[in-house]
Amino acid sequence: MRSLLACSLVLVALAGCTKQSTTTPGGSSATPPKDAPVLSLAWSEYPSWSVFGVAHEKGLLKKAEGEMGSIEKELGVDIVLVQADYEACLSQYANGTVDA
Question: What is the pLDDT of residues 4-60, one digit of tens each?
């Protein structure tokens, strides 16, 4: 139930972000905004959460703050991935260490 809540919160957070164009008129990618909002996301090898690790491996998300993958650039949100054990992820979310 908590994993469903955490995933729902991530989706709501991403849906609430305005889409900013990162493409210049010539079609090349512009540098992402330096003031992009940061969303910290704890994840583990729990089956439904593994998608975040795969997204990082494919370059869609970058783990570190200040580095943005293609989805982060498209959405204008810097997603910081924090990998931990399942229970540690829940604890980090519960105590406010991470956003989702």
Answer: 555 555 555 555 555 554 444 433 344 556 788 999 999 998 888 889 999 999 999
- Residue 20's domain spans which residues? 2-24+31-94
Q: Judge contact between 89 and 96, C-beta under 8 A.
A: no
Angle at 88 between CA 79 and CA 41, to 5 degrees: 10
Q: Which residues pair with 79 in a beta bridge?
A: 39
Cα–Cα–Cα angle for 76, 77, 81, rounded to 5 degrees: 145
Question: What is the rounded distance in angstroms from the CA atom of residue 12 to the CA atom of residue 38?
Answer: 14
The answer as to whether 67 is a domain residue is yes
Q: Give the other-Cβ count within 10 Å of 61's Cβ.
A: 23
Indicate the number of domains in the chain. Answer: 1
